[in-house]
């Protein structure tokens, strides 16, 4: 399981092009890490599939417990990095395709004073209806 975690982390760091990830091994490639992770899982299931399932279940349970308990971490979250990378990829590919009128969405910027007046709430309610309640 440790080897699986290390290989998966190395592959993700390389695929996400994390600025802090600088492998020193000259022949490193992300596909080698993914191959190592796949082989680790394959050997686990070939040797004893029931123990492999138990180990994966225990590892997932420990991960969820740590996530639920809110452990302090200073190194960032790999899944958040994956999401940010996917969002960046999607944003960079927006201009490559022509926009159809059916896909158009209004982009609104509302500048208001930070008060609790009924006018402010009315304007924000109106703008929210224009955006179909989405932020």
TrEMBL record:
- Which Gene Ontology terms describe the biological processes this protein takes part in? cell volume homeostasis; chemical synaptic transmission; chloride ion homeostasis; potassium ion homeostasis; potassium ion import across plasma membrane
- Which Gene3D superfamilies does the record associate with it? Amino acid/polyamine transporter I
Quote the Pfam families the UniProt record gives: AA_permease (PF00324)
Q: Which UniProt keywords apply?
A: Membrane, Transmembrane, Transmembrane helix
Q: Which GO terms describe its cellular component?
A: plasma membrane; synapse
- In which compartments does the protein localize? Membrane
Q: InterPro entries of this UniProt entry? A: AA-permease/SLC12A_dom, SLC12A_fam
Kindly list the GO molecular function terms attached to this UniProt entry.
potassium:chloride symporter activity
Question: Quick one: where is this thing mainly located?
Answer: membrane
Report domain Amino acid permease/ SLC12A positions: 14-109
For this protein, the parts annotated as crossing the membrane are 30-63
Q: How does it sit in the membrane?
A: Multi-pass membrane protein
- What PANTHER family does the annotation carry? KAZACHOC, ISOFORM G, SOLUTE CARRIER FAMILY 12, CATION COTRANSPORTERS
Name the UniProt record assigns to this protein: Amino acid permease/ SLC12A domain-containing protein
**Organism, scientific name:** Strongylus vulgaris
């Amino acid at each position: 399981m440790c080897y699986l975690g290390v290989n998966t982390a190395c592959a993700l760091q390389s695929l996400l092009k994390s600025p802090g990830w600088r492998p020193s091994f000259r022949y490193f490639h992300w596909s080698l890490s993914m191959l190592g992770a796949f082989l680790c899982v394959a050997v686990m299931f070939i040797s004893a599939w029931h123990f492999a399932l138990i180990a994966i279940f225990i590892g997932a349970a420990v991960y969820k417990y740590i996530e639920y308990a809110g452990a302090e971490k200073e190194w960032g979250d790999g899944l958040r990095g994956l999401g940010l990378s996917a969002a960046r990829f999607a944003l960079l590919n927006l201009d490559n395709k022509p926009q159809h009128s059916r896909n158009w969405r209004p982009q609104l910027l509302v500048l208001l004073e930070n008060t609790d007046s009924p006018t402010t709430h009315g304007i924000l309610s109106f703008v929210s209806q224009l955006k179909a309640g989405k932020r």
